[in-house]
Amino acid sequence: MIDVKNNSGVHMSTLWRWIFFTCAAHCVVACATVNQSTALAPSGNSAASVNSVAKSATPVTTEVAPPVVRPPALWDGSAVTWEELRPLLAERAGASVLEELFLERQLDQMLKARKLNVTAELLLTEERELVASLSDDPARAIVLLSELRAAQGLGEKRWKSLLKRNAAMRLLVQNDVKVTPDAVEALIDAAHGPKRQCRVMALPNLKMCAEARARLDAGEPFGEVATDLSTDRSASRGGLVLPVSRLDPTWPSSFRQTLWSLQKDGVSAPVLIDNGYVFIRFENEIPGDATTSPETRAVAERAVRRGQERIYMENLAKQLRQAQRNVTIFDDSLLDGWTRVRNVAR
């Protein structure tokens, strides 16, 4: 290179070297900046890609609208808030609902321990059984079910929970149910055997029995004396009760044996039942239909099983409710309702 000096005395070669290195440094910085932008940008070398990445890297501030919170109800344009409604609901039915939730969790634990499962088929069976128990007429049963659910506040969720609890308890008590031939025969006899129509007069002690006997011996009609003295709820009907079969399990055996030993229009001596006494007058006999078909026996066996299941299920539910002691309630209104219900149940 020619060593030439300018007017200021600076060598031209030195000046060119300074310009070269300055440009090279700027070029390196520019390349590094482009490389970083390219690494963040989508594939492609266009300037538009680089510019779009640069724009996307700029934070954008957007205002998020607050969620619209609707009140549970309105009256005449005025909102009813959950703050108003929740404590009233807790006092009204919170204890019952809470007890149902606890019972469901207890049953879930028992099912898990025994490796049992409530299937959709069992839930459907529970619903069918309940509807059938309301009426033999399907249309009437549906109407009665709607009325029952409305009266007890059984919406869709509580209704499904009720079916699940019933199915779970029925599953858990299966090993306790024993369908004996005697029980089946008694049910068949009660449904299809001969029955006797009678009047009863329940009295608390032997002194009252002596008074009633004196009036009967004096010729007063049994119905009138029963109306005056009997403590049974049939007193308003003159002691008349529903027909009784020879094997009807709803009546004590001593009562049935005495009734079936009487002659027509005969009055028994006082029969000891529970903590009192009862006079029995045989009014009339209703012949049975003597139905003993296999279908009849199958229906009776099913009824016996269902009756025992109901008893065992009620006992299981009672035991589980009594075991609901480890309970902590923080809500004041719910605690008030729970305490009142528990105090009444004791």
Number of helices: 12
Secondary structural class: alpha+beta
Taking the alpha carbons of the first and last residues, their distance comes to 115 Å
What's the SSE pattern? HHEEHHHHHEHHEHEEHH
| Number of DSSP E strands | 6
Determine and state the CATH class of the domain at 194-286: Alpha Beta
Q: How are strands sequenced across the largest beta sheet? A: 4-3-6-5
Please state the CA-atom Rg, rounded to the nearest Å. Answer: 44 Å
Unreliable parts: 1-55
Beta-strand percent range: 5-15%
Structural topology:
Elements: H1 12-40, H2 47-56, E1 73-75, E2 78-80, H3 82-113, H4 120-134, H5 138-151, H6 156-172, H7 181-192, E3 195-203, H8 206-217, H9 222-229, E4 244-245, H10 253-259, E5 271-273, E6 276-286, H11 294-322, H12 332-345
Antiparallel strand pairs: 1-2, 3-4, 3-6, 5-6
Helix pairs in contact: 1-2, 3-6, 3-12, 4-5, 4-6, 6-11, 7-11, 8-9
